[in-house]
């Protein structure tokens, strides 16, 4: 019995699903040679306009070509409306077709009106009178009994849901690749899936997304649909055809109503189907990069900017046949990433932040730094100066803040007003909690600081609840995961990879030697992975070099590249002295061959700046290292700083304060949302620091901008590299 009940339910569902299709009374027509829009309209006794209305992809009569599949409205419902004709009210037509599921009795009360009753029961006056025919001739009287029709509740989204499907994210796919696959913009993707995090582009493999069915999958919204004609082969079923084209069978029926009229899919039948989607699932970040079309762009400008031919662009993006649209996501070959600026698989436009300022944006900025006003006695100048000199945190905070003030002056001259609040964290996590409890952070666009890890974590957690970005002035990472923290100092791994990639690129046959103490095993292994033939120097007691063994490892035939990985000043001073001597001595063969030595490190630290280390030796060895800071060459900043602070020369902390603050302010002046801006802005450079943040999903935003610096003639300069990315400043 249960089996027959299931069959009955299935039959009823199928019947109701097919009623609207036959009710539409459409037919399809395959255009034959010599046929025109006019001749086809005469054949079916409809107007040319009605055919164009039913086939939105056909813009004019010239688009009607041989083998084009047209939908023909046989009933003439889609016809030209004459000026004197009253347009058909489709809502009323639908209401006529809907039958009430039951009735309720209503006794008319004193002072009630027909209008009031219809509003109470959410029906129309026509519906009320249709089931109470006496109201056509009688007035409404007190105590009159009316039967009120109750109609089935219709979910307004029910029909819309037919145009959507659930998509499972594949590995290495991004929002850009999924948007391209479905021919929608990323903004549309976010609207359809409001649960997606607005602060990140991350998609997890296996995540389910609501997405529109392929274009042309229904009769609705066919403004830019691409269709193809398909001749049904033997033994083809609706199910197998839908599977082949990746669309549901009910959508095939909607596009081809004659299927139901002829009792199903028949061999030799010519049907109208949307062009196939790429079902390979290979549109991901491993083999493509993506570009989001901006308003007012044209094909010519895009091909110029993306360094791609028109033919190749159209081959990769067939949807362009329907025209270029703002928000469209285009895919490009992965190899183009070498020529373009790419971030998270998205090609970035070159945006000049200074020229892109919106003066209506008024950033609200908060500084949280350890000024240690609880320790500094301003009245005692001598002690205050001594304290500042001996406390690095205090010197850093004050230097950073003086540079930040110059940045605020600079942005003001550009016409941008900034609301600023500054708090002294006193290098105390309890003090930070007190500030956060006392002060209202609503409306704050960014927080710069604190310096220490504990206070930074405290601020990051509370700011995350209000979706406020936090910029860490000197931190490169955190033990906790913060998706709202911008770590402005690159990680050690980024710096190390920067130098090693550069050296691997220029390496020919140089003799590579590694000197690394036990605390720098990661650096040791990283160098060895790049240069497997490197020799390992022996270190005694983790403090000094085994000199005799080392000298034997040096080559007189090749240039020697020596990596020194340590944070001990004495070891740095000793090794540089030894290498400097070896660099100038004559080979023992007596043939006058000179030993050439260059020194490198992947982990630059304070040991190399120690007073015991000779700058002359470093210069002779052309000492080269990676750094997030380059020597200040911005005369405009130095001039503004010395003018503001009575001739004082800015130190490294002041330069960093200016750069970090200016970067934040310019980005907020461009778009008042640092999370959004970080998606579209690549490398920015200022007086001595660069910023190129990569969003690492839940862990935060990490700066990848760094430089390769080299000692040369007692000065430090940046190593020139080809194909460097230019700044967006």
TrEMBL record:
Keywords: Signal
Keyword check for Signal: yes
Keyword Signal tagged: yes
Residues of the signal peptide: 1-23
InterPro entries, A to Z: Leu-bd, LysM, LysM_dom_sf, Peripla_BP_I
Annotated Pfam families: LysM, Peripla_BP_6
Gene3D superfamilies: 3.40.50.2300, LysM domain (3.10.350.10)
Domain LysM as annotated: residue spans: 27-72, 104-148, 165-211, 228-273
Family to which the UniProt record says this protein belongs: Belongs to the leucine-binding protein family.
Name the UniProt record assigns to this protein: LysM peptidoglycan-binding domain-containing protein
Organism: Flagellimonas abyssi
Phylogenetic lineage: Bacteria, Pseudomonadati, Bacteroidota, Flavobacteriia, Flavobacteriales
